[in-house]
Amino acid sequence: MQLVDIGANLTHAAFRDDLDAVLARARRAGVSRIIVTGTSVEESRAALGLVSRHENLFATAGVHPHHARDCNAEVISSVKELAKDPRIVAIGECGLDFNRNYSPHPDQEKCFVAQVELALDLQKPLFLHSRDAHPRFSEILKSFKLQKAVAHCFTGSKEELRASLELGLYIGITGWICDERRGRHLLELVRDIPRDRLLLETDSPYLTPRDLHPQPRARRNEPAFLPHILKTVAKAPTALG
Fold first, then answer.
1. Which of 16, 52, 137, 158 is 20 to 30 A from 217 in CA distance terms?
2. Diameter of the chain measured on Cα atoms
């Protein structure tokens, strides 16, 4: 089986010294394609540079809500230029984060809307972030005629899942589902995700599956662990037809 990791932060410093080995392990594990996440203009540019040097890697370009306070017309213009490259397959990571609130809510919403509009203009999918931002996140998206979009690293409630599916979003599931403390509810919710809307991701180097034994050095997650997430999803009670 050939798998696609739809979200991995391979430009993170944690991969600086052994990225080639990380990619080799991913291939051996059956992960044939990886989408490298862009979270700012600088990181998106680095992601594009990285995927340009490796086969079967693609990237996103966008501004994470944490950086929304610095988002302006010039920033959006830079994202647009990067996104014209065919190896940039989505706009994002973009959305709302009302948990850490590194940027004021009005700045987050303005930056989010600008990137939704950009994705529609370029006819590219959206790679979406939402944390403690329901229902405002859905309210904003409802005002647009969305094309393809994925709720990256979905960890929300049944109500949030229903709202996301009603919007036509794909649902990204990470190693959060492998955490018996905070991810148990996802084992129940995956039954409500249609098979053709369910996507998998590692969000490396974050969200290392808690039930992975032995744990990797420094608990660094990597794309080679995607099959472990898949096995956990497959074991969950499911009504997928």
1. 52
2. 47
